[in-house]
Amino acid sequence: MALSNIQNSNNKSAKKVMRQCDQMAEFTAMKGGLLRAYLTPEHKQAHKQLALWMQEAELETWQDSVGNQWGRKVSKNPTLPTLIIGSHSDTVSNAGKYDGNLGVLIGLEALSVLADVDLPFHVDVVAFADEEGTRFNTTLIGSSSVAGCFQQDWLAVKDKDQITMGEALTHFGLSPDEVGHDARTRQDTLAYLEVHIEQGPVLEERDLAVGVVTGIAGAKRYQFTLRGMAGHAGTVPSDMRQDALCGAAEMILAIESYAMQHDVVATVGKCDVKPSAVNVIPGETTFTLDIRSLKQDVLESSTLELLAQLDVIAKRRNLSIENEQLYKAKAVPCDITLQKLWGEVVEAETGKAAFYLASGAGHDAMVMPNITDIGMLFVRCEKGISHHPKEQVIESDVGVALDCLVAMINRMAVKYS
Amino acid sequence: MALSNIQNSNNKSAKKVMRQCDQMAEFTAMKGGLLRAYLTPEHKQAHKQLALWMQEAELETWQDSVGNQWGRKVSKNPTLPTLIIGSHSDTVSNAGKYDGNLGVLIGLEALSVLADVDLPFHVDVVAFADEEGTRFNTTLIGSSSVAGCFQQDWLAVKDKDQITMGEALTHFGLSPDEVGHDARTRQDTLAYLEVHIEQGPVLEERDLAVGVVTGIAGAKRYQFTLRGMAGHAGTVPSDMRQDALCGAAEMILAIESYAMQHDVVATVGKCDVKPSAVNVIPGETTFTLDIRSLKQDVLESSTLELLAQLDVIAKRRNLSIENEQLYKAKAVPCDITLQKLWGEVVEAETGKAAFYLASGAGHDAMVMPNITDIGMLFVRCEKGISHHPKEQVIESDVGVALDCLVAMINRMAVKYS
């Protein structure tokens, strides 16, 4: 699909959101590229701009204890808890303009569109100040504070300049002692909605503007170390070798094959050989595994099965194998009712059957189940590229996503009244 | 086999050779390890020591144009051209004591044992001053000069301190203009014999002290670059990936499997992934191939077949593949008559059937066919380890090799008279 072939919808709001994404990208610490990290001058400037736009949309605005920017569409007669719509405003280094920011700006524009409609609940739009973990390697700081799961020991984590998060909060004008004290509760929150670029190629492949997210995959990461016997590439016969790279190669194919046949994605992203010489049989190989599934039980059982397969291969090849778990995150399903509502609005707005897909990447929505139900909508992005200057969305898709979000808020007003 | 369990033979000469290997290892540029490179003070000192030992064995001694050390057992009535016995005296960095040096010292000791025997030919023992290429990355300098294939452009090659080989020759007291002018000819050379450690595990595996070398394998080296598509480890479905590492893994296994089934050894010694992140699908992988065979035609056909197999894999996986040839050396067979003679003496000295094996590593003998027939004998080394301080031989094996060499010289005296 050539994106240029797609007619832009004549959607003034979509154009506005696209322009705002461009404007947000100007708040950057990186010459010729986009980098906006937590508790930096760019964070402050970007949120100041967001606050102005929020005020133009007649929202009440404030910055919370951890540096998130909020705008509230106040209901005259709130009979229900508050609906939160959000995503993040921080970026990775040399980032694209849409990851996170698009969701914030679509949320804001939806409230602008609904300015004259009174809803039975307040609607908050929030720009979480850190999701990527670019500065402190600790991800989801903004949403964790709101969801009541900010970990106090994060305050001692240092950035590359040895500044702790606590010190950075103080420099920013915030009080480390108060972080998380304004967390929302289950009682005062109706739901959390997030619009985000897909960061994968599935919607493009299926020629769909948007897709309903079924949940956020759980993930585990391991590093494996295989040890065999280094040796002279010319003098050790094939059948007397204990080649750690050949062992790793068999394991990498086993992992690939397993993922093809099961409800997981699995990736070997790193592979390092020792001694790494053209004429020496590899004596040691380390490689990583990243395995994800939307179904936590499938993730657990698949990981066990794969680890067992790797052990069998190592044993047969007379290699030692060690593994170290680097990371784990549980699968987070999206609320079924919210999925169904998203499905209805997508069908109504696009005239096509709604497409449901899991998110392999992590999002702020991951931590929000701590206080409320979550519902996510993905927007097609070109070639699935993200975390890169080439990250791109189509204006007409932004229009579709915006229409869906407006319709979703209206349906929730009906559904939950 | 525990080497310590093997009774040392009561062989005074073997003990002497072992002691001389230890003494030679003292001429080193490396604290706590062995490093003796071409045209260095250590080269000069080691060859001075060799010359002394040669003189003790009543040999005529001289240094040739390229810095090789010679000792000649002069025949009273030479009816045949000169027999050359040799190996190299230089080492890699952090080397073992036996690679090269053992062959020189066994040759020297054989002539010492035969001091009172008049042969129908002169016998020269030579310590080639460079085989490893440690200083100039140009290997086989010493033997190439003798065999008439020293390349004059080597004189311009620089070491890491930007000193050319020509300058180094001058500093050493030699004349760059004269290098190779004292090359031997086919007319004045009967044969070239070399005793060398195996540098592989085959003799140890078969519990044999020595083995007859059938030839020196030809080798080709390539670097392959595979390009696919990098992507997010969580968001790109398995069946939409172009994973350059999975492609490389399949190729590495194909290479391993091919080598098992054909008369080649093949090694992937290096494998590097880009971007090399735990959560990113590899977009590019480079790996090397080192393939060797004693049979030049097998090497050629196997290389073609393997390259074709890799192309098929790349195509099926929608990856681009490029290759760059890094190195090639033709296979060099040992002379059939000399192999047969070695076989006879090995059977006579050990009481076991002679075992024949190819050399996967390069040796000085590789270039000598330019002027004469070559014959090589391998000595078992512990676990096949070489180019490492752990390089080890058994004294009794050295005794066997020495006895075989003495018997070989005697048989040649009969055979060629």
CATH topology of the largest domain in chain A: Aminopeptidase
Instruction: Work out the strand percent of chain A.
Output: 15-25%
**How is the biggest beta sheet of chain A arranged?**
9 strands, mixed
Number of domains of chain A: 2
The first-level CATH class of the largest domain in chain A is given as: Alpha Beta
Which class best fits the helix and strand makeup of chain A?
alpha+beta
Mean pLDDT of chain A equals 95
Walk me through what this model shows.
- 2 copies of one chain form a homodimer.
- With 417 residues, chain A is α+β, with helices and mostly antiparallel strands.
- Chain A has 2 domains: 3-217 and 331-415, Aminopeptidase (3-Layer(aba) Sandwich), CATH 3.40.630.10; 218-329, Alpha-Beta Plaits (2-Layer Sandwich), CATH 3.30.70.
- Helix content of chain A is 32%, strand content 22%.
- The first copy, chain A, has 10 helices and 16 strands.
- In chain A, strand 3 (82-88), helix 3 and strand 4 (123-128) form a beta-alpha-beta unit.
- In chain A, helix 1 crosses helix 10 (395-415) and helix 3 packs across helix 10.
- The longest helix of chain A is centred in the last third of the chain and has 21 residues, at 296-316.
- The interface between A and B is large, with 60 and 59 residues.
